[in-house]
Write a structure and sequence with these properties.
The protein is globular. It is of the alpha+beta class. It has a 9-stranded mixed beta barrel. It contains 5 helices and 9 strands, in the order H-E-H-H-H-E-E-E-E-E-E-E-E-H.
Length: 275
């Protein structure tokens, strides 16, 4: 079962107050004249972005713990994290929480990430890989470094997802300077992190990308799935523009790293349960 922050993990009150104050300040939008804009006047989000933090390990608060490969020692250990879930805990239904715990116990073989499956939304946003937003006056493309995943945000002619897929179907709109994206049609096989948190094919995600300045975005995702959760819930975290010279996403085509895990049992001469 995942280990969460408890009595043994304490933050001095003065530090906690400073962290909360800093978080509030970080969510204050920059003066409008500082934002890069498209000719139409909406913010120009074009660029390479990346999340920093521990959400890719576990979006809920968690203590440090051993990783899935004991022989790697501290190199594979899970760092502690304050979590990005509003209120701390995901409001699972009892049977879904039991499934999450089973996922966690078997994360070394079941996590879709280790199999190089596309990560889905919102997980793709806070994985430890950059992603690139390519914005036009029409639709918006997001290209992710991990597994070559991508998705188009359709800003007009909104329709329902024609078929379920790993990255779902994204319909977008502007609310002032905030890009709002409704994501449906995910296939229900993705996880939300490496701790086994998950949703089903009924999951609906509403993302909000709000510029805090030319190089920072405030990211929110409202997640609804009545078959898994007792109520809608939200995550939020900052995104940072990669500003080093020549910043770009590179190729991380990972199928070759997952071949042995997925297909070794099919090789000629491989042992089977009936041997």
């Amino acid at each position: 079962m995942p280990r969460f922050l408890g009595p043994s993990v304490r933050v001095p009150l003065a530090w906690l107050g400073a962290l909360l104050a800093a978080g509030t300040a970080a969510q204050t939008p920059a003066p409008l004249e500082e934002l890069p804009r498209m000719p139409s006047g909406v913010p120009d989000l074009t660029g390479v972005w990346q999340a920093l933090g521990e959400a890719h390990w576990n979006i809920e608060p968690h203590a440090a713990m051993h990783g899935t490969v004991a022989s790697l020692g501290a190199q594979n250990a899970v760092p502690p994290g304050l979590g990005v879930v509003e209120g701390g805990a995901i409001p699972y239904r009892p049977e879904a929480k039991a499934q999450r715990d089973a996922n966690f116990a078997n994360r070394g073989t079941l996590d879709p990430e280790i199999k190089c499956y596309r990560p889905g939304v919102p997980r793709a946003t806070y994985m430890p890989y950059p992603f690139q937003i390519i914005q036009t006056e029409g639709d918006i493309l997001i290209a992710y470094e991990y597994a070559g995943a991508s998705r188009t945000i359709y800003m007009s002619n909104h329709v329902e997802a024609p078929v379920d897929s790993w990255m779902g179907w994204s319909n977008g709109r502007w609310e002032g300077d905030t890009l709002v994206v409704e994501v449906t049609g995910q296939n229900g096989q993705t996880w939300l992190d490496r701790a086994g948190n998950f949703g089903s094919a009924n999951m609906r995600v509403v993302e909000r990308y709000t510029p805090l300045g030319p190089n920072h975005l405030h990211y929110e995702a409202l997640i609804e799935d009545p078959t898994v959760y007792t109520r809608p819930w939200k995550i939020s975290l900052p995104l940072y523009r990669r500003i080093e010279p020549g910043a770009r996403i590179l190729e991380f085509k990972c199928p070759e790293f997952a071949e042995a895990l997925l297909y070794d049992h099919l090789r000629k001469g491989a042992s089977t349960e009936t041997d």
